[in-house]
Queue: 3 jobs
Job 1
Amino acid sequence: MDLSFFPEPHLIPLAVLSLYLLYGGILYSFGGAHGRERAYAVWHSGMIGAALYAGALVLGYALGAVVQYYATVSGITPNCLSYFQPAALDKIHDAATNAMQCAVRVYWRHFNAISESYGWVFGISTLAGITVILSAYSMALFQAAMPFSAAATSALVALGAAMAGANLSLGFALLLPIGAIMVSNEKTRNIGSLILGAGIAFPAVLAAGADVLAQIPTVHIWAWQYILLGELVKAAGHAALIAAVISITLLVASAAAYAISRIFDHVGAHIAIE
């Protein structure tokens, strides 16, 4: 989700919270005794939601900074994670959005390279199989490509899931304040906690996965690799490495999101209103 058409994207959460508090004001003005009681509950929920949103925003940025430090110590050059610089607190509202846009570009570059190579391998195998002279070569190429096919399929599925997660995380600029308000209400506490957990964990972890992936060369099947079939098998190992990196990234992101959601769910159990 591209938020660039908004003059100040970081004002969107403020607008969401303000509209919710305004809803309470409308209830107070026109709702009689029952409306005023309901308005007090809405204002209480709104103030708690604002505090939870602020905490989620800081926690998400802090998590990104910690992951960036860990990546730097591990020898990984921060790229997407560089948006979580501790010294750039003025960018705290835009860090997750910028990091996810960066991650999507990295994931798409690898996805595009693997899909193109995948198509060429089987396209050439099919064309060679049409002629009698090259039919044996076509069969050999097809056999050599079987490991690459399995690895490439896994990598494409994993990269597709990572891109979907990153694109979904772009919407959390809008969903985080809504999730915070939902945590402050008992009936919606669980789903609100999941929104906050995913909104905090996904940007940092998916950006880290993209930075690891950025240091791995993209998979391109060059013309000479069609002749030296052993090189095609090596490319399968390369694609398998990409699939493993993305699978681990998604696993860690899901685990972190669940752990953080449990924290907010526990907090909401003590402060949520009926």
Job 2
Amino acid sequence: MNDFPFSENDSIYEILPIYKEYAYDTTQEIAYTAKYVATTEMLKKISVGTHLFSLSKPRELPNTKLPLHLLKEEIYQIIYTKRTGYLGYLEELLNVPFVLSPEFLTEFGHQTDLRVTTDCAELAIYGKRREGLKVPYCGPRGIVKYLSKTDVVKKGIILHFGHQVSVLYEDRGIPNAIDGEDLLIHAYELKAEIIPLKETNLYNTPYIIYQWKQ
């Protein structure tokens, strides 16, 4: 946050995606809304993840699949994380809408690289791409090619439920075991988020544990 582009005396507007009750698909555009917020209050309450802010009240926010911060010069994309390494990079996608499936935009690049949309596998892959690995975005089936099975329970392992890919963010319950108290970071239902396994409908669903190939 050291390069935050606003002063503490500025009045700014937070640009918020309007999450649907089901996953977007690539034929749908994302709607946004603007909310006034004082900079000092925002800095106290800002959550980890990607945020959009504007110095002026937007006259119009288009429904779009394109990156707003590249379409409109008055809109800034702010990324706030607390961790370093793989999990820190995954934190960058928090708050980003869940889309089936993110796509490559000819003029700008991949929606997930741009932190505009993500899905479950693309979130897991994003962190590795940010680490410099040349892993393509390839969905829940394709990601397995870049993984190997493991019995070791540690932060950053992949829980593959078949249709859903989640990353272990924190082993909070029984040490060295997967249980309902453990925190997952994943894109599922509305957006990318950190959530206890027990609070998802993945709880008690069979899974395979993977780690990234070296």
Job 3
Amino acid sequence: MRSPKPELIWQGRIHLGDEPGLYDDAHYSGLSAEVPLTLERADPQGAATALVVVTEGVETFTGYPGHLITVTAYLPDPARPYHSVETVLATARITSADQNRKEIPLALTNRPSPLFVSVRVRIDTEVPPGLYDDFVLTRILHASQNFAFVASLGFHI
């Protein structure tokens, strides 16, 4: 069973877009924002989980792909101690149709625990400059099947 209420990992207000000051109550980051997370397997049989990106004000133009969400794992580089290899685990696009909420499933079979990942949200730049959608990233949630994984903000060893 999926956890009855997704667990909150991060909450804030990060304004993405090309019009600084449009959301004066939010930190302006420009064209992208990236948040580090740690996922830990609570169930040895756990193979999958999901992250949920929540926004405010996403209004995309029809015919454009939408804003890119990328979940990247930072895995130990076997050839270079104390270095990591970035591996994209999942990508998704958030559009007006998603109503400011996008769930990104993650297949984590044979992945180490803890697993260090980042969630990056990037403005759709296929739209001409000056017409970029401005919106606010407000939350990142974690919804784990059978509570197989727990998540926390930052990289924790």
